[in-house]
Amino acid sequence: MAKKTVKVAVAAVPKSMSEAVQVVFQIGEHQRHIDAVELEYNKRIQALKEIMVKEAEPYQKEIDKLFAGLYVFAEKNRQSLTDDGKRKTVDASPAGEFGWRLPPHSISFHDKKAVIAELKKMGLSTEFIRIEEEVNKEAMLKDEDARVRAAKVKGLKVVQQEYFYVKPAEVTVTQEVQRKAEDLRALVGG
Asked: What is the pTM of this model?
């Protein structure tokens, strides 16, 4: 197999060890300049983040209040909003949607050794216990039958908690946001 040749732009090749040492010094100097530039921009980025957090804080507080109010409304009117539970998403056109999500089941227990002993006692060790004697939560969660059998194990609970969400409709960038972006670019110097 032929050797590949890589062409790289090269400054003068050192002719002695003292010249090589000088090249190392130059590389270090350039790296320190790069580090200084990086540090300066990281400071600017951090300052911008702090400004952003400060400017966004009142909006986040308002979102939290609005979210809580919408949740109270949704819970109070859940039956009518979901056609008696036939659907979980409520169309709030043109603003967006809100509703309830049910994440995947999960397994929780407090006494690992007691649960393992109980699984063995019930004849479920090959399916629900890993070789390193660890409860196989994934196997317990794989389907409804497995979850039902796992739920019968003393000291083990099959858990699934529903949570509420809000998904605003996507909007295009407004002139106000564009102006803020331009202000930030000017602040950074870009």
From this structure: 0.52
Sorted by where each begins, the domain ranges of the chain are: 14-94+172-190, 106-161
Looking at residue 24, its pLDDT comes to 86
- Could you give the CA distance from residue 115 to residue 133 in angstroms, rounded to a whole number? 10
The pLDDT, as a whole number, for residue 2 is 62
Residue 116: other Cβ atoms inside 10 A: 20
